[in-house]
Fold these 2 entries.
Entry 1:
Amino acid sequence: MTPPRTPDELHRFGYLGPRGTFTQMALDAWDAAAGREQVPFGSVDVALAALRAGEVDAAMVPIENSVEGGVSATLDALATGDPLVVIGEVLVPITFVLCARPGMPLGEVRTVGTHSHAWAQVRGWMAEHLPDAVYVPTLSTAASAAALGAPGDVMFDAGVCAPVAARDEGLEVLADDIGDNKAAVTRFVLVARPGTLPAPTGADKTTVVLFQKEDHAGGLLELLEQFAVRGVNMTRLESRPTGSAMGSYCFSIDFEGHVQDARVGETLMGLRRVCAEVRFLGSYPRADGGRPGARPGTTDADFDDARAWLDELRA
Amino acid sequence: MTPPRTPDELHRFGYLGPRGTFTQMALDAWDAAAGREQVPFGSVDVALAALRAGEVDAAMVPIENSVEGGVSATLDALATGDPLVVIGEVLVPITFVLCARPGMPLGEVRTVGTHSHAWAQVRGWMAEHLPDAVYVPTLSTAASAAALGAPGDVMFDAGVCAPVAARDEGLEVLADDIGDNKAAVTRFVLVARPGTLPAPTGADKTTVVLFQKEDHAGGLLELLEQFAVRGVNMTRLESRPTGSAMGSYCFSIDFEGHVQDARVGETLMGLRRVCAEVRFLGSYPRADGGRPGARPGTTDADFDDARAWLDELRA
Amino acid sequence: MTPPRTPDELHRFGYLGPRGTFTQMALDAWDAAAGREQVPFGSVDVALAALRAGEVDAAMVPIENSVEGGVSATLDALATGDPLVVIGEVLVPITFVLCARPGMPLGEVRTVGTHSHAWAQVRGWMAEHLPDAVYVPTLSTAASAAALGAPGDVMFDAGVCAPVAARDEGLEVLADDIGDNKAAVTRFVLVARPGTLPAPTGADKTTVVLFQKEDHAGGLLELLEQFAVRGVNMTRLESRPTGSAMGSYCFSIDFEGHVQDARVGETLMGLRRVCAEVRFLGSYPRADGGRPGARPGTTDADFDDARAWLDELRA
Amino acid sequence: MTPPRTPDELHRFGYLGPRGTFTQMALDAWDAAAGREQVPFGSVDVALAALRAGEVDAAMVPIENSVEGGVSATLDALATGDPLVVIGEVLVPITFVLCARPGMPLGEVRTVGTHSHAWAQVRGWMAEHLPDAVYVPTLSTAASAAALGAPGDVMFDAGVCAPVAARDEGLEVLADDIGDNKAAVTRFVLVARPGTLPAPTGADKTTVVLFQKEDHAGGLLELLEQFAVRGVNMTRLESRPTGSAMGSYCFSIDFEGHVQDARVGETLMGLRRVCAEVRFLGSYPRADGGRPGARPGTTDADFDDARAWLDELRA
C-alpha cells in the first residue's frame, strides 16, 4: 500500500470519538478534512491501529493539555509500533458545561459522569457548587452526554462535556464554562503514515522521541546540548517510562524548526549518533504560527556558508 | 496543630482506597503503619486534602508507574497547595488478574470493568484473548472487584484487579498475571506535612518541583547544569504543565542524596537562586537501597575541606 | 615575620627596574607608593624572590600586555613557589620613542637596542622607516636608554624606550610614538605576601591558577562551568605549561568579583573540589572601575536568601 | 605562483636560525628536508614573511615549549597576515650546555649570554652554581655560541646553548644538561602556504585560531561546547590578545583529528557559524603518533549513518 504523498491525498480521517468530543472540534478546524470521510474510533490506540492498517489516511488525536499534561496513550502509541508521523497540529480551547436531562435542577444532582481528564479540570467548580456529588467515570466526555441523551436508565444525574455535545444530545445546560482554568487548551495532532512530510513554512515544529544509549547520569544534559549548540529551541519535553524498568525513561520532545532546516538536520544527526534510537515523529506547521527568533549563526544561509568554507579547506 | 516530628509519631495513615488496591499493598509494606489506623480515601486529591487538614498524619499515594508513567493527580497535588513532603517510598510489583462472579466462563465475557491505568496495562492480553471485549471505566481496580462482589446488577461481566482484591471479594480468577509487562512496578510515596524529615541513611533520594523564572530557550539546560556541576544524579524528570498557558511547564525531579548532604544543599541553593520557585518535596530513604557512586570532589568531606580553605582565604 | 595587614602598612616597594621603565610608571600611578622607598630589581624573578624573603613589602610587575600577551615570567613566578597575592592593578598606556645620542641622524641608524617585547611592538614602524636596522636585545627598554646615556662604547646606534627614559638619560628623540598599536596598554599588578586582602569595592577582580586533577578531554569545560553556573565572568584565561610534560597545562584566570562575594566564594569552593590545586592569587579593585552587570540570582542577597531557605528546609 | 601541492614538492626549507639552534635539530628530524636547500632566518617573522613571499616552500619554527609555553612570535605571525598552514610537527628534547672559550674555568664566569627563553630554563642551575652571574640577552642560543666562537671581544664569559652549537663553534663545555626541567621538550611546526594538506593518517592534529563574535561572558564556554558535543578533544588552548584592547583575546587551539574527519568537519562548521572568524592553520600527523580513543558515535561511519538516516527522513 502506497501512502498518500500530500495532505490533499488524505481522504479518510479517523479521530478519537465519539462525535461531540473536543477531538471532533479539532478535526472540524482542519480545513483539508472538510467534506472528507470522518471515522470515529473508541480509543487513541484503536484509531492509530486503524491508521497503521491503512483503514484511514490520517487520525486526529489529543497529545497535550495545558492543564492535565501529556496524553499518555497518544505519546506511547506514537513512541512504539510501526512508525507514524505528525503532519499538523490544532489548538482547541477547552470549555466544559454541566448538562442533564431536561427538568433536572442543579440542586438535585447527586452523581456526575464524565471522562477522568475532564473531571480533573472541573474539581474546583464541583467543590464549590456540588461538594457532595459522586463522580462516575465514562469513556469520554461525549459518552456522558450520549448516555444522558439516550433513552433508558443512566448511572449519573448530570454530565460534563463540550457545549456542542450537550446541544447535539438535546440536554439542558445547568452551568456554563465550569472549567477551573479558563485558559485551558488542548493540543491535537493529525497523524499519518510516513511518506507525508509537510513542506517547511518558516514556522514549523518537529517532534521526536529519544531513547538513551544507557541510562547514565548527565545523559539528558548531553542530549539537550545537542539542541543548544545548534541554537534549536525545545517547546515541550516529557519523560516517559520505557516500560523496561523503573527509572528507565525515553524523552518525548517538540522543538522549533523543520527537518529540512539545516540546524534541525544537524541536531537530528547529532542525536542519532549519541542515542540508542531517535524516533522521528514529523515536522509540521505550528498552529500558533510563531516563528523562532533568529539566533545568529543558525540560519540555512549560515550553514551553507560554513559548508562552502569547509569544502574549500578540504579541497 | 503541631505536626508529628518523627515517623514513630504517625498514628493515622490515609491511602488511596478502597481496600484491595495496590496502594493498600504499599501501605502493608510500610512497617511503621502496621497496627496503626488506616483510612481509605476515594482519590489522591481527597487523601492529600485530609492530610493537609490534619485528619491523617500521612498518606500513601502512587506517584509513578514503570509502564504508565507519572501519576498526574499526585504530581499536581504535591506541586501546588499547602506544602507537603515525601517521607518514604515503596515499590510494588504490579500483577493483574481477570476475575468474574463464579460460573462465568472466559468465553462469555463481553464487557470488562477496571481503572483506565490498569486497562492500559492489559491491552495486549485483551487483544489476544478477548478482542471484542468492551471496556467500562471504574474508579479503581478494586472498585471493579467490589462491584462484582456486591449483590445486584453490575455493568460488566469481568474485572481486572489485584489478586488480593479478587480473593477478598470471593471472585473467580479467569486468568492470572495478565499484565503485558511482567516487570511492571508502581512506586508509591508516603506523604506527610512539613516538619517530618527522615534522617540521612547514605542511600537517599530528594524530590523537588522547579518553576522557571521565565520560559526561555535553554532554561532547562541551565537547571540541569545546577545538578551536574555538583555531581548530583537525577533519577526522574517529568515536565508538567503549570496550567497558565500551553507550553508553560514546571519540572518534577527526583535526585540522589539528602537535603543534609552538602552537594544537595548547594544544588538546592543554586536552583533557588535561578528559579522562580523551588518546591522542596522531601528527602527520604530509597526503596531500593541503592547508593550513588561517589564522584570525586562531591562528598561532605570535600565540601568541608573547600569551605575551610575558603574561610582561610577570606580571613 | 608578620606580613603587613593593610595597604597602608606597605613601606618598601620593589619593582621591575631599572628606573625609566614602564613598570616605574605603574608604580608612580600607585598613590600609596608615593614617598615610600622604591627598590628596582633586575628581573621579575628577583623582585618576587625579594618580596618572598621580606626584603620589600610589595612588588610592582607587568602581567599582561594588550599586544604581546601574558608576561610568562610573572605568571610562572606567581603560579609556583611560596604563595603571593595580587593586591592591586594598574593600566599603563604604552608609548615608545626611538632615541639616540645627540647628533645621530635617523638615516644613519644601523643597529637598534631594546627589550624583545618592545621590539615586537615596533616591528611595523621599523619595517617602514629602518628596514635594514639590526636588532640587539637588551634586558629592558630602560637598559637601552641607559647604555646610550652612559659614556663609552655601546653596541647599538639607537634605542627604543619610554619617553621618560630617553629624557632622563639626556638622549635625543628621533621619532615619537612609534608603537604599531596606538592603543597598546600594559597591565601591572602590585604583589604582596598573603595576609593583605583589599576590602571589596564592588568593582573587583580575582586571580587564580587552576591545576586539573588529570588532563582529560573536556576538563577545561568542566572548570568553566563552575564559573558559568554561578554567573561569574572571566576576563582573562591563559594556559601555561606545568612543565611536567608537553600537553600538560594549568590555567591562569582573572574573573570579576571579590573572594568575599558569595558567588565568588562558591565558585572557588567548587573549583577547589574538582581541581588538583587552586592557587588563589588575590582579590583587588579593578583599575578600570568597571562593575559587572548584576545577573539575576547571583548577588550576595540572593545567596543569603537561598542559605536561609535551605537552613529552614534542614531544620 | 602555484604552491607546491604535496610534501614531496617542497624544495626550499626556511628555519629559525642560525645554524646550531634547536630549530635546526627539528629540521634535521624532518626526513623530507634531507638533502634539500635549508635557509636560516633571523626571526620567526622574517622566516614566515619569506614563506609568504614564496622565497621558501616551507618553514620550521618553534610553537610551544613544555616549560616556557607558547612562542608568541609564531602564534601571532600565524594568526594574522596572509594565510599559512601547518603541515607537520616535530618534538625536540631540549638539552642545554654551559660553554666557553677553551681555558675559561667555571669559577671565573661572571657573565652569561643566551636567549631569554633559554635563560628562563636554567635559572635554577644558575642560582645554585653561578649565583652572581649577570645575564646578557642574545638573539638566540646559537648566537651566544657563535659570538664566543668568533674572534675578537665578546660581551660575556660563557654561553648557554644546544650541545651541537657548542661543538660546532669549538667551545669547551663547562657543564652538561643544565636545564632545570630534564623533560623539557619544544614543539616545532613545519609551515607552508595553503594548498598543502597532508592526507589523514588516523593520528592527526588540527590547529585553529578562533576570534569571538563579541567578547561576552560565557563566550569561551560556547566555543568549547562546539568541540565537546562532537567528541573532539583539545590538546592545547592558549588565549592571545587580539591587540585591539586590553581584555580582547583570540584563542589558539590544537585538537585531535583531521579536517577530513566528519566530526572535525562539523566542529569547524559549528565554530565558523558562531565565531567572527575561524582561521584554519592546518591538519597534520601527530609527532607522537597518538590516536584518540574512539568515543561512541563520533566515527566517520557514525556520521555517514546519521546522514543516510536524515536523507531518508527528508525524502
Entry 2:
Amino acid sequence: MRKVDPEKHAARRQAILDAAKACFAKKGFHQTSTAEICAAVGMSPGNLFHYFPNKQAIIGAIVDQEGEETAAFFRDLGARDDLYGALVEFMDVVLDLAGDVDFASLALEISAEAGREPTIAARVGRNDRELRAALEQLLTDAGARGQVDPTLDIADTATWIAALVDGVFNRVAVDPDFKPENHHKTMRTLLGRYLRPQA
Amino acid sequence: MRKVDPEKHAARRQAILDAAKACFAKKGFHQTSTAEICAAVGMSPGNLFHYFPNKQAIIGAIVDQEGEETAAFFRDLGARDDLYGALVEFMDVVLDLAGDVDFASLALEISAEAGREPTIAARVGRNDRELRAALEQLLTDAGARGQVDPTLDIADTATWIAALVDGVFNRVAVDPDFKPENHHKTMRTLLGRYLRPQA
C-alpha cells in the first residue's frame, strides 16, 4: 500500500482549489467541468477523485477556506493597539477584494450556488456568523478602549457593517461605474462618523 | 375585429404580473411554469400569450414596474420640506420591503435571473442607475437646505446608500437572525451620523 505524504497531499489539494477558483471565476461554477479543473491542475480525473468526490465538494472546500482565512485575518487585527484602525483596514481589504475581478466573480458564484444548494448555504451562513462574531469582538474591545463609541449596540452595528460588506460586492455586480478602489475615502468618512466616540 | 378596451387590458396585464410575482416568490422563477401563472390568474395559456410572449417577458415587466414605482416614490419624497427625513423614510420602506418575505424572495429571484440573462441585467442596471440618480438629487437638494452635510461627495454618498440597500436585502438571504423590523433605530443612527451637517 502506497503511503500518503501529508505535505504533498495538502499541496496538491491546494493546487486543485486554486485551479478551481480560477475556472469558477472565469466561466461560472455550472459551466466549469471537472475535466477542465483537471486540465488546469495537470491531474487525471481519477486522481482528482482522491481529493474531492465532486465539484460540489470543491466549492464547499473553497467556502471553508475563505472562512478560515477571514478568521486568521481577524486574529491578527484583534492584536492591534488601534482597533478602530484595524476595522478600517478590514474594510480596505473588502474594497481590494471587491476590486479583484476574479475574487468578486467567485463571490457571486458562491452566492448563487448557496441559493441552490443547502449544504453550500449552510457553509456561507457559518462564515457569515463567524464574521459577525469577529466584528462584535473587535467593536467590543474597541469600545472598551474608547476607540469606538461604547454606547453603540454591538450586535446591530456588526450587522450593519456586514451589510456594507455585502453591499460593496453587490455594487460590483449591479453598477458598472462602481470602482471599489476609488471608495476608500468615503468608506473612512462613513465609518468614522458612525463609529467614533461622539463629541 | 374585436376592439381592445385599454383599461381592461391594463387590469388583466396587472393581474398577470401580480399572480406571477406571488408564484416566483413562492417557488422561484425557474420552478414556476406559465401554466401555473395561468391557473393563478384564471386565464388560458393562449390568452396569456396576448399579454406576454414568455416568462422572461413577465419578469422583465416586473422589473420595469418596480423601477416606475421607485421613481414615483422619489417624486413624492422630493416634494417634502424635510429631505433628510424623506431619505430616512425611504430606508424605512427598504427595511419594510426586506421584512416582507415575498418581496425579499422575489428580489433574490430577480438578482439571480439578472446574473443569467443580459436583458434582465440591463433592466436591473437601469433601475439601479435611476435609484442612484434619485438619491443624488435628494442629497443635493437636502445639502442646499442644510439638512445634510453639503461637503459630502454626492455621487459617492448615493453609492454607499445604494450599497446599504443591497446589503439589507442580502442580510435577509444570508443571516436567519436578521429581522429588518428591529433595525430602524440603528439605521437612523448610522444615517444621521453619516449624513447630517457636522458640528
